[in-house]
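re the bet — no i am not wrong, look at it urself. input seq straight from the record:
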Amino acid sequence: MTSQPSDPASARDTLRVGDRSYGYYRLDAAGAPDLEHLPYTVKVLLENMLRGAATHPDLVTAADVRALASWDPARPAEAELPFMPARVILQDFTGVPCVVDLAAMRDAMAELGGDPARINPLVPADLVIDHSVQVDEFGTDAAFLINVGREYERNGERYALLRWAQQAFDDFRVVPPGTGIVHQVNLEYLADVVAERDGVLVPDTLVGTDSHTTMINGLGVVGWGVGGIEAEAALLGQPLYQPMPIVVGLRLDGALPSGGTATDLVLYVTEMLRRHGVVGKFVEFYGPGLSRLGLADRATISNMSPEFGATATLFPIDDETIRYLRMTGRPDEVVARVEAYAKAQGLFRTDDSPEPIFSESLSLDLATVVPSLAGPRRPQDRVALTDLRNSFRAAFPDGLHTHADGTSHEHGGQDAIEPRGTVDEASAESFPASDPPSYTRDPGAEEHSAAAPERHEPVTPPADAHYRAAEVRLDGQRHRIRTGSVVIAAITSCTNTSNPSVMVAAGLLARNAVQRGLTTKPWVKTSLAPGSRAVTDYLNAAGLTDALESLRFHLVGYGCTTCIGNSGPLAEPVAQAIEANDIAAVAVLSGNRNFEGRIHPLARASYLASPPLVVAFALAGRIDIDLTTEPLGTDTDGKPVMLADIWPSPEEISSVVLKAVSGEIFKRNYASVFDGDDRWRNLPVPAGDRYAWDEASTYVARPPFFNGLADAPADPVDITGARALAVLGDSVTTDHISPAGSIARTSPAGEWLSAHGVEPREFNSYGSRRGHHEVMMRGTFANIRLRNQLTPDAEGNVTEHLPSGERMSIFDAAVRYAAEATPLLILAGKEYGSGSSRDWAAKGPMLQGVRAVIAESYERIHRSNLVGMGILPLQFLPAETPTSLGLTGRETFDIIGISDGLKPRCELSVIARGEDGRETRFRAIARLDGEIDVTYLRNGGVLQTVLRRLAG
């Protein structure tokens, strides 16, 4: 039992590690009544607040510390708690707009008479360029160099900005293209687990602008994904606010059976936790089975936290953590301080440690895990390998069968299968995401691939008369593809390529397959895209690279590639056959998401699988097969080859990993991780502390967020005479508000790009152009599936200007309203802003003139982002909705009470005047959930708040 702290600063003490002494803040001085039974997640957050209250009492208070120290697992208090991460990580798609904002803030600081250099990250930041490489070339030795070359051609302007940031900002490092994936680089190199800050030891905590930032929790580091606005606030020293944590404990017993992989386990966990419900909660693993789970296996599970909905999934520090740090070449002094600090603070788990008391508890016997995949459309839809054939056929029933007359019948309803193009389907499941769209096929694009090797006695997939099928000619030979044909097989994603066991297993399976004379099917686009260069080094050291390349699994890049939809084009004959015959083709990948249309627009089914299973399905060439009873093919003697015949044993995998994976490989690869190649070093980089904006650029421009910013904010005023720019329903996602997909030629953004000399084939995507506000503001509400109740008979980017009644794009209406000096608002239903934590879903409406949103409820991060951009989020009172109040959106709106001074969750009056002059009056709750929100809104946003503070 400990007492309540009187002064957080008094918690500072000294810890000696070897011959050095460090400061640290003792957790046992935080006043927790039952510290040893707190979940490790809560302990880390408590230390963060204790130290914050001691060092930043203006941002974190002793009352905040007391609130978390009194954490009750059964009844968590209603509170918003400040969190100040030790560092921030970014990737290029979401990092570019952050850098653009920081550069614009430097300009604004100079215009306010301040020192631009004061705009600088106050916590260390690392940006890893991994989201832009695409699989154009595959199956050849030259694939990697060709793909990286094209990456630079497409992204030179963006990369020059990042090169400038690398030299202009302190504590801002950039990992160049062709190096690795942000989360794997973080796991293998960037994370210290216990960091030193000015002689004080602190738990290494972080936030990142990518949802899979959670991977680092497998190393005992608490971290999660946030939107760009929140990341910028954290970079500038502002706390992020989290609700009182709910922590779900997942007990592990037993051990994985022979043949079981971490991928199988994570698919079990995803299915289990999705069913239980952990959205917005923390998950923490415990139990005797934990000691039998390798760290790379843990990281695979933590990586997929967004897929099962958790904020983060922590594996506490233990002996396995220490072993992994040594294996990846961390310095001895770093390893020593991790162990000493964790043990001193009660953050080191052993099998004898007291079990934490959780808000909720579940258990899983590892011995029950069987080989599995997930698909065809969602990561939580696990299917055992033995059930895959029947599961696929059930997922594509009679609605896709071809009738005798050549016509087809499509089922109706929500489950009907329809092409989804490049819409980011992650949003449909309310998963935080920050990913680009899937590859958009360019009819004029060339396809570059290796000719398929000669095969012994090709095994023709059994033709199912009920499935759509077509004949294709590849490399001078005729082949038959049909619904169920695997057209993409990708060993990709940090989720699995960070795990030496499954990567070595894939290489051993490939070796065994080649020895038996098997080859991959010629219609399968194969690729190998590891998350770090260490992977290719240890595959080389194990002698497995040649076997993988014999099956056309050549290195295509070090980046996200297929996992985020950068899968590149299929062979043109295959693509034409799929489109012409409406074939439900399949992608199999070792990634973490598989929403329809995400991996490739022509792959209507996608399955997540372990790397060795990816190789197996490339050999089989089809998904509707039971690999436990049907052969993969025949060997050179005409004998059938079963999957079990070539699957490597656990003992062999462990032996190869032990011999091939060494700390020296990681040390060698990360010694020059920030240097880059000649292309990176030769990029034209503007000099100076302020960025030299190129007025001709269509990728990067100074945003207008700080134009005309005064020294002090103006007095708040009521909103009067506002019009509804759009009236939206329930579960409107951030992808509806700010899509990441392709840019239509006739859209406002497409027309702007064309007017600035950009050819349609060079439009790229909204995601790649997040550094240019002119594109993004025109792309706001441009999702082709947006349903605006002002235009109920139309879908997409259309609204009705009022009172004229003219129909036009939402952007054009916003421009006209601005010319008429009419303020704007959005009316919406429940869960407004669900899905991705996309900052442009708040930035775009702000630039269109939206002053407020009135919704039935909000997704937490989006509500915060609206406030962060100076938009007032209002919430209807319980039991009131736009429908119950008779609102149509054709009214004018006054929001009264703002001028009297806003307070957290105060009620404001809204007056809606209909076209017939009738008034509807109602109250709405201002979703300013803390005093900091009031401050941000008064200043016009979080960045404006920080800028004024630094300039003052």
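see?? The first strand starts at residue 12 and ends at 17. told u. also Residues 283 and 313 are 5 Å apart (CA to CA). so pay up
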